[in-house]
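The instructor's notes for this session suggest beginning with a concrete chain rather than abstract definitions. Hand out the sequence below and ask the class to guess, before any prediction is shown, which regions might be ordered.
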Amino acid sequence: MNRLNHVAIIMDGNGRWGLKHKKSRNAGHKAGLKTVEKIIKTTIKNKIKYLTLYAFSTENWKRPKKEINFLFNLLENFLTERIDDLHKQNIKLKIIGEKIFSSKLNKLLRLSEKKTLNNKKLQINLALNYGSKTELISAFKKLQKNKVKISEYNIKKYLLTNKIPDPDILIRTGNTQRLSNFLLWQLAYTEIFFEKKLWPDFNEKDFGKILNKYQKIRRNFGRV
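After discussion, reveal the predicted structure:
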């Protein structure tokens, strides 16, 4: 069986789902949060140690301000209401991306990371204001500043995912087949699954099917 430590997900389709069902993109984001909770439970059930969720990209700042504010309010409410529960479940929260949000949200993110720092059952990496190109440029600048030799090992050491294994699986929902500036370095040998369903419609059964497909793949990593 293939070893499965890390699943990364591009949660695409919330806005389109909201327009289709509720005539509101924000309604889709709210529905998508329920899917997040279902997938966290399934991840724990399958004893997967790392789950990385692409929540807000560096390019998402181009969206309407009203939608951006709703997204961040949704995140604030979720952390305020659920961080204690995540902590009790032995779940660690790590933010990957630059924290340039409101002082309230920045403080809440820092407190959530601190509270859950030593938890071991599952690490959720929440990609917020994350862009892989920005991450790579930052890593190269640090290499240059510290006069460190450029090597695969040293580049990885300066990435935001340092000490986190590369994803075994990437899932993108929403019937879109692109990476959208997400973990470009880390996905070099990741098995990629593009799912037609919009994120709020994605469920535990869909997730289980992908996990089963992964176990049947022969992973050569360049070997014959």
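Then share the key points. The first helix runs from residue 14 to 21. The first strand starts at residue 6 and ends at 10.
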